[in-house]
Amino acid sequence: MKAQRIARAVGLAGLLFVAVTAVKAQDTSAVQRGNTKFQRTCAPCHGPGPGNDGEAMLPGTAALQLKYKGTVPPLLEARTGLTADVLKGFVRRGSWSMPPFRKTELSDAEINDIAAYLATLPQAAAK
Ligand code: HEC
To answer: By alpha-carbon position, which residue is closest to atom 2 of ligand 1?
Structure first.
């Protein structure tokens, strides 16, 4: 009787462990996919500028510097609050010189991954 109860408890703990690691693995891969996607698709315009004076040389970064005049960081990777919904609003419609992305170019799932990546950055976590 006692052995059976112990076996059941061990089995349950094992199941729980598997479930928790599965969820963690999924989160990590979403963040990794989002990071890769962001670097390939967004960073060519939204990366940090190459200038030594810190002046952005990239169209997205430069345009956001002009738009917000420093009240909001020009780098998307330094921003907070860029949730999947916010990203979709800009990414699907485009914004001035930013082209819109169709679902065949960038799926909703991929935008969710990018949002998951942006949410893990230290700046986002600190605020
Ligand atoms: C061809 C260059 C280019 C690419 C590629 C690009 N962007 Fe942009 N993006 C811009 C520009 C330029 C702006 C500023 C537009 C403006 O002045 O309103 C912008 C603005 C934005 C904004 C609005 C921020 C704000 O507060 O106004 C978001 C969000 C954004 N981009 C996300 C993305 C994401 C996510 C990707 C990758 C899927 C991406 N962009 C790819 C050029 C680009």
So the answer is: 45
